[in-house]
Amino acid sequence: MNRREMPVASETVRPDPADLGIEALRTHVAGEMQRTRDRSITLTSAVDDDELVEQHSPLMSPLVWDLAHVGSQEEIWLVRDVGGRSAVRPDIDDLYDAFQHARADRPSLPLLGPTEARQYVTTVRDKVLDLLERTPLEGRRLVERAFAFGMIVQHEQQHDETMLATHQLRRGAPVLDDVPPPAAMEADSLPAEVLVPGGPFVMGTSTEPWALDNERPAHEVHVADFCIDTTPVTNGQFLRFIDSGGYDQPRWWSEQGWQYRQHAQLHAPLFWSNEDGTWWRRRFGRVEPVALDEPVVHVCFHEAQAYANWAGKRLPTEQEWEKAARFDPHSGRSLRYPWGQEDPRPEQANLGQRHLRPAPAGAYPAGAAPCGARQLLGDVWEWTASDFLPYPGFAAFPYREYSEVFFGTGHKVLRGGSFGTDAAACRGTFRNWDYPIRRQIFAGFRCARTPGRDELS
Ligand code: AVJ
Ligand code: FE
């Protein structure tokens, strides 16, 4: 049973929850659960109860569904499975099973109301904090190094980001606090792109204790020479694509992309509008001029791909992205984060809803990767050219519905997290995925290209 994955030699070792004594690990878990719940409460108390049960977009659940769903998953995995305790609300499992009801249909279900939902998640949490004290955190893979607790923390943080996207879609006055992100440093003097020399690197992880199944196992991948943009593509750069007629020229688009561009009448990123020749964007209830130096956000895969073609480049593969983000050529090892092994600090990455927008391109010099690329973690999710597929040796754990049922050519991989992603739910190996037409997520992109022979010395 207790099959611990073998660490691969060239994956870095680090201080992690495994190095904490068992009591310190419990304290760490309780702290992460509380910090995460505080965020969920912020997101669900910023609007009144009428808005909580409303559907702000057919793409999203009512916020009150996300809240109770988070509690339901916590009940199923921690109260029942890990704790072996009796069910709190077995009658509502089906209502909050994401596979039973499409998002568009959720408002018409007999959902728990705001008061009931809050009581429910509190009842579940009280039981979990109690059993956390008594459960041995070893002897069974699900609890090894508190994995199930980490999985549930990440699940709640993922739904918090989804709720943040619902906040962005809702109409009405601003309700969330907004602190400006740091300015760009030396943005103009940064090279537009960096070269990553060809060679092998270790992709994925077998040592990160809270890594999810699709990030495993660590495996060696050979990547040819490539150049990758130093920063994500900015609004200013994207405007040049718009102004040159990029949305009207099928030659930049894939066949599928052009079809969708026609069908959805795409002409600019989601939430942009043009008034008398000026581009404005709506951002969490504020309408403001498009900030030219910020990474573009709310574009779908097809728009990202069209821009890259227009620019004479392409999107990076997932392998290229991860090598740029993790490979340290000095040690030959793959790092946990672009900057090294330590968990993200505010000077290193725009994560965790601290700011309600990406920082200007060129910000976060302290978060640069060994190759020199910046803002790989945080700011905007980055579309890659890759389909969401299992790594060699993949094994679903602990349930097929997290990753396995989504593998295939229908979903594209996104990497790096956004300003709305919490550090607990993001790392150099983390893989996100979505349909190539989705624009409500906090997604942008950066470009890559294969260098010509004459560019390599
Ligand atoms: C990893 C963001 C694609 O939110 O759809 C949440 C994660 N899985 N509940 C999503 C997830 C189950 C998932 N993404
Ligand atoms: Fe979920």
TrEMBL record:
Residues 190-449 form the Sulfatase-modifying factor enzyme-like domain. It comes from the Bacteria. Keywords: Iron, Metal-binding, Monooxygenase, Oxidoreductase. It is an enzyme of class 1 (oxidoreductase). It catalyses: gamma-L-glutamyl-L-cysteine + hercynine + O2 = gamma-L-glutamyl-hercynylcysteine S-oxide + H2O. Its cofactor is Fe(2+). Gene3D superfamilies: dinb family like domain, paralog of FGE (formylglycine-generating enzyme). InterPro entries: CTDL_fold, DinB-like, DinB/YfiT-like, EgtB, EgtB_Actinobacteria, Sulfatase_Mod_Factor_Kinase, SUMF_dom, SUMF_sf. Fe cation binds at H69, H155, H159. One of its GO terms (molecular function) is iron ion binding. Pathway: Amino-acid biosynthesis; ergothioneine biosynthesis. Its EC number is 1.14.99.50. Gamma-L-glutamyl-L-cysteine binds at R103, A104, D105, R106, D434, R438. Residues 33-163 form the DinB-like domain. Catalyzes the oxidative sulfurization of hercynine (N-alpha,N-alpha,N-alpha-trimethyl-L-histidine) into hercynyl-gamma-L-glutamyl-L-cysteine sulfoxide, a step in the biosynthesis pathway of ergothioneine. Belongs to the EgtB family. This is Hercynine oxygenase. It comes from Halopolyspora algeriensis.
